[in-house]
Amino acid sequence: MAQQKIAVLVSGGGTNLGALIMAEQAGKLKSGKLSLVLSSSPTAYALERAKIAGIKHAVVSRKEPDFEAQILALLEENKIDIIVLAGFMYVLSADFVGRFPKRIINIHPSLIPSFCGDGFYGLRVHDAVLKAGVKVTGATVHFVNEITDGGEIIDQKAVRVCGKDTPETLQKRVMVQAEQVLLPRAVEKVCAMQLKSQSKQA
Ligand code: GRF
After folding, report:
1. 86 lines ligand 1 (CB under 6 A)
2. Is the model's pLDDT at 202 over the cut of 80?
3. Is 142 a known active-site residue?
4. Taking the CA of residue 53 as centre, how many other CA atoms within 13 Å lie in the half-sphere pointing to its CB?
């Protein structure tokens, strides 16, 4: 069966990568194959997850001046079709993003268009949610375009904010209840869509 080749770009713990690996192992990622993990940090635990799962992985250091060119070369070399940004702490340039229309997916830990855009990453998102006093937050999977967190929304899932929440407890709940549920589902959907449009073109 034809499958899209997926690259996952990471920078940290890789819990979202872990969710994708579990989905693949459970046969829920039928239209895609996790083929490459690229980390912007050499100490990211996500690299360990890739190693244990037997997925090809590499470090591309953010400190390198040709960081994006190195990523591009690895994507081409490995014939990657779909790119998933899963906790990747770097905003890709408009030039890079423009090369992959509707082929780069990002997971953001809030309900876009709230608490997103430049400066909203990691615990800062959840801190802002708590300060605003909203009672519902969540996660969003979206296509990546040249606007930070501004691409077309693929799917969203809401999560309840609790009175006793700290940014850390809220982050954990959003990751477990929303991000890790949404991302594998969205990746399968996009891979299936791509396969369908390719078969129509053939
Ligand atoms: C997650 O909240 C993700 O949405 C954000 O970074 C956090 C860590 O993700 N972009 P992971 O554990 O490295 O997948």
Report:
1. yes
2. no
3. no
4. 25
